[in-house]
Write a structure and sequence with these properties.
Layout: E1 3-6, H1 14-19, E2 26-33, H2 41-54, E3 55-60, H3 78-90, E4 101-103, E5 109-113, H4 132-137, H5 145-148, H6 157-176, E6 181-184, H7 214-217, E7 220-225, E8 232-236, E9 239-243, E10 263-266, E11 279-280
């Protein structure tokens, strides 16, 4: 029995949808979908159904794309998120709103799906959160979230983020008192893990500094994320950090199929040292 993870299926792209047709079944294993399955509810359902048909149990956390709404959508912000959670529950998929689940294979751990968003604090120390979007724009970087991700009824995305962080801390503290945790969040928990090359100022849409110590504070065994479309494994303070995204068609080799990009979270590799740089996956 194994626990796998993948993020950023981005099923709005035909080539990514095509890949679902040859995705192998693993009926004895569990799967984490770490956000950005798709943009529309139709595409999200397509991905969730594909996962639940192939795996014994499926976990989901929202990415930014699942929260997008345009002028035609009546569901915005929290209402949009709640609609996807309701869809997950109809399909038996575990969400951040559900009780955490204990991993039954080998050494016990609690799988904790998170929804935390970002608060524009991942920029350099000299750039305040209020200045972060303008700072990114100076380098020609602007995230579509600024147009499509509504925080309603919160006034700002940062306010929504802070509310989520405050509520989640209490749950994690209670869970960590029982077993080590598998923390799953679409966005990065630590700023140093955001590696986006030429679009480095995109970092401001990638997380919050409020979670920088969560891997040790809440006894994490593994931290799973997506969002960057840059697949890596890092070890920090003895904790394994996995970025598990598939990405847009230009970010992966279609001939290899989705199975090539599934990352084994548990049992997973063992490492006792933090020395050395990240391991990159192609």
């Amino acid at each position: 029995m194994k626990l796998f993870a993948i993020a950023d299926l981005h099923l709005s792209h035909p080539l990514n949808r095509k890949a679902l047709e040859i995705w192998a079944a693993r009926p004895n294993d569990w799967l984490i979908l770490a956000g950005d399955v798709g943009g529309s509810l139709e595409r999200i359902e397509l991905g969730l159904r594909a996962a639940t048909e192939r795996f014994a149990r499926v976990f989901w956390v929202p990415g930014n794309h699942e929260l997008w709404s345009d002028g035609r959508d009546t569901l915005r912000g929290v209402a949009r998120y709640d609609a996807v959670v309701a869809l997950c529950r109809r399909l038996g998929v575990v969400t951040p709103e559900d009780p955490y689940v204990v991993w039954p294979g080998g050494s016990p751990a609690i799988i904790a799906p998170l929804f935390l968003l970002y608060d524009y604090t991942f920029g350099p120390d000299h750039v305040s959160p209020d200045e972060a979007v303008a700072w990114a724009a100076e380098d020609g970087i602007r995230c579509a979230d600024e147009r499509y991700l509504s925080p309603e009824p919160y006034l700002t995305r940062a306010a929504w983020c802070h509310a989520r962080v405050a509520a989640t801390k209490t749950r994690l503290a209670e869970a960590a008192a029982q077993y080590p945790l598998i923390l799953v969040n679409h966005f990065q928990l630590r700023r140093e893990l955001v590696r986006v090359g030429r679009i480095r100022r995109f970092v401001v849409w990638c997380g919050t500094r409020l979670t920088e110590d969560w891997h040790t504070r809440f006894r994490a065994r593994v931290v799973v994320s997506g969002h960057l479309h840059v697949r890596t494994t890092d070890w920090i303070d003895g904790v394994r950090f996995e970025e598990v995204s598939l990405g847009y068609p230009r970010h992966w080799h279609q001939e290899r199929g989705i199975d090539h990009y599934l990352r084994e979270i548990l049992p997973g590799p063992v490492r006792t040292s933090d020395r050395g740089g990240p391991v990159h996956y192609r």
